[in-house]
């Protein structure tokens, strides 16, 4: 009984001492918890080198091992600068993808070399990577090399591949053989020559990254407008319609009808010049105001020559009209129709309406070429 009582007394004494110790040293068990889970040296490095906010620097510092030092993290920025990246490019890239700092040179260097050998260098290479950092995360053997090889097979030169990638930096993020390959095959089934496919791929690569069902739908629409597969304008008509929703297309038709065109006039113009439907309302208005409002042409006459809408009023149409006015005022040209003259190439226009009258109107060439007419 005495032994039990003694043991109980000892336990109670130990318990009181423990409570007393915790009261006197309340922070002893929380020091570890309150210690910052980040490396202050790395935090300061991220703030000073890449402009990180303090909060972002702290959260980013947790991505790296606690033993890492700024010298360890400098290898990637140094590699990028050696590849032509400016300090701004490096800062932008690291701020977007700080985990690049932990990448190994031997992983990144072959990818940069591939792009350099393709034709990217300096700021062009840096812009490509900064705009699409995932390029450096793609496998070089499983993704980048197959994609570049596939693009070369369609575009036939490194220069053309570079042009396409500059238009759409995200191309290398896709499985191109599956996405672009399917769409190219759809266009080939429409008897579209590879030359036209390649030309559009260089100019509008995003068009080829849509789903095959999306492309088939627009092919079907174009056929309903009367375009024949294999015709020179078929692929451009498909692209033109692909840039518009159904509501936008209907609004375009309403806009043309407001100028006195029938639906058949609009379709006829579309067949002659597919990009005609992509004209802005402002461009349509200024051109129609000039031909119909100022010159007195019937709107249907303009519908027969939709290419007129692609010419600059100030740099081409108005100067040519002034030339005809001068010729007619001097009795040198009275039967020439301006609509026919307006669509001539520059070489043919000069030969027909300017150079042939050099002796009789020596001031005509100077007037046409001068800033007084072209302003």
From TrEMBL:
Species name: Macleaya cordata
Single Gene Ontology BP annotation: DNA-templated transcription termination
KW Transit peptide (keyword) present: yes
Family: Belongs to the mTERF family.
Coiled coil: none
Molecular function terms, GO-annotated: nucleic acid binding
Name this polypeptide is given: Mitochodrial transcription termination factor-related
Alphabetical list of Pfam families matching this protein: mTERF
